[in-house]
Amino acid sequence: MALRRQGIRRQGVRTDSSEASVRRRFVGALMSLMALFFLVYGPCGFAYASRLAGTPGTFKVLYCASVRSGRGNNTVCDGTFQSTDRRVTDDEAELVNDVDGSDLGDQVPVTRANPGDYYMAGPAYAVGWLCLTFAGAFLLACAIPAVWTGQSPRAAVPRYPRLARGAALTARAAMVCVGVSGATALVLAAF
User: Fold this and answer.
1) What is the per-residue pLDDT across 59-82, written as a single tens digit (0 to 9) for each?
2) Is residue 42 a contact partner of residue 130, using CB atoms and an 8 Å limit?
């Protein structure tokens, strides 16, 4: 026992190897990359869905078709985009999987990010993008201790108590926000 506490490895006794540490750091780095993607993509989508960025307007559904691609079907709707101020019109606008059961001739609120790039606008969509942002914060809070220490979160607590406590508090707060914003998005989508 005394040998193990001092960090001396006896034959047949496994201690935390550097290989496991590298693996934990690698998984933590992958989680960090995914989190950064969520933290960049989520706020951008939120800005367009809440009409804080882009050109707000409506998409008039002219034709919808189900297109087989890869693993499943996509609903592709062609139509016309017209900005709210009537300065921008796109007669060849296209929405993929975002029409929510709209019928032909319906006007759907959208925001134009770039020519040919449209985001559905509305409270449910905005809160959904916000939920993605909070999920990114949660992933990042879970990944930082693994990348920083190369140890599992429980093993990192005695050596790095401030880091572990801060990551745990951030992760809990982000998970609460994910739950609240996700539930809000579902309620708003129902109406």
Assistant:
1) 998 988 888 877 778 788 889 999
2) yes
